[in-house]
Task: inverse folding
């Protein structure tokens, strides 16, 4: 007899959504041949912010680990660029995956410490880790100390057109790759285990899920993504300093994008990143009011629409462009056993 296993089921909207997303990625990758430089830089920024948002959403939205210290791995990725690109002479774009490896290795012992804490204590611990990293690097004179240093020497040998093109292609790869990684992970049995741990750790453990292992995997994966993105960010900025690399503003931007778009959804960070950049462009002339308005918008969504823009779309239209929800389908007429011994019921319709 075939077992009733929860399955991920898509529809026309999911196929159309994935097709449109792949088409947009291909269109973005072609832009170096026909778009102006300012547009290339803005689009690269959009995609690397999307990558950061997807990593934070995986950690907090699906893993239930509310971190306010992911800037630690962005900063480590930036300083990996300094060590490997500037001092070791490795091509800066080849440093990007190596920076992810550096951040992942750093996340292993850090995770051992922060996983001893829960809730608000975990969030504070992640921020403290980021501040410790900032202070350590600010006091390392070989890496520029508190004022930082330029990485222009690492990219000077690359022609300007190729540097802009490789920056955009790497950003598209990170943003699109982060989205694909989260989507495929959540469709796997590991994704099912992750959401079970988020919803109820005791119940998940009773089903045989190793909670610490799944959390560690997600935490390290998020660190790897942030580390790679951090290296790319400072390729575009051409200067790395502790204040910029380990700024809490990175975590604030991730939080804003995910909350506005819809936490715990693959589509949410995409929508949130679009809204974030639209608001930033519209409010850039308002000075400090820009931050106040952005903060007010975030608070408003948390109060009146906690599931974000995509949550409202799902509630109204039932659309899932990247479906990860599982449904238990039982054949009509199949016998299902009641927990009470000796009593059985006959299922007459699908149970979802």
Result:
């Amino acid at each position: 007899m075939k077992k009733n296993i929860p399955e991920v089921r898509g529809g026309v909207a999911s196929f159309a959504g994935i097709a449109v997303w792949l088409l947009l990625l291909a269109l973005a990758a072609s832009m170096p041949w026909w778009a102006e430089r300012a547009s290339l830089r803005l689009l690269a920024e959009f995609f690397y912010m999307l990558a950061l948002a997807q990593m934070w959403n995986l950690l907090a939205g699906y893993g239930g680990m509310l971190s306010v210290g992911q800037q630690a791995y962005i900063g480590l990725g930036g300083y990996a660029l300094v060590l490997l690109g500037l001092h070791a002479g490795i091509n800066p774009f080849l440093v990007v995956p190596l920076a992810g490896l550096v951040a992942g290795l750093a996340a292993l012992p850090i995770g051992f410490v922060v996983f001893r804490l829960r809730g608000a204590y975990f969030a504070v611990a992640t921020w403290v880790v980021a501040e410790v990293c900032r202070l350590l690097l600010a006091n390392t004179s070989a890496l520029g100390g508190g004022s930082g240093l330029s990485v222009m020497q690492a990219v000077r040998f690359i022609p300007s057109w190729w540097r802009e093109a490789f920056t955009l292609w790497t950003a598209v790869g990170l943003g699109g790759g982060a989205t694909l990684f989260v989507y495929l992970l959540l469709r796997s049995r590991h994704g099912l285990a992750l959401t079970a741990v988020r919803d109820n750790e005791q119940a998940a453990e009773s089903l045989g899920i190793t909670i610490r292992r799944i959390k560690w995997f997600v935490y390290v994966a998020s660190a790897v993504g942030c580390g790679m993105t951090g290296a790319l960010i400072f390729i575009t900025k051409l200067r790395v300093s502790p204040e910029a690399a380990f700024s809490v503003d990175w975590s604030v931007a991730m939080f804003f994008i995910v909350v506005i778009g819809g936490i715990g959804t693959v589509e949410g960070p995409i929508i949130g990143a679009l809204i974030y950049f639209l608001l930033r462009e519209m409010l850039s002339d308002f000075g400090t009011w820009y931050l106040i308005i952005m903060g007010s918008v975030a608070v408003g969504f948390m109060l009146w629409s906690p599931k974000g823009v995509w949550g409202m779309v799902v509630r109204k239209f039932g659309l899932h462009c990247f479906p990860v929800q599982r449904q238990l389908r039982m054949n009509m007429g199949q016998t299902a056993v009641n927990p009470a011994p000796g009593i059985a019921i006959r299922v007459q319709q699908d149970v979802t």
Summary: The first strand starts at residue 7 and ends at 8. The CA atoms of residues 22 and 278 lie 22 Å apart.
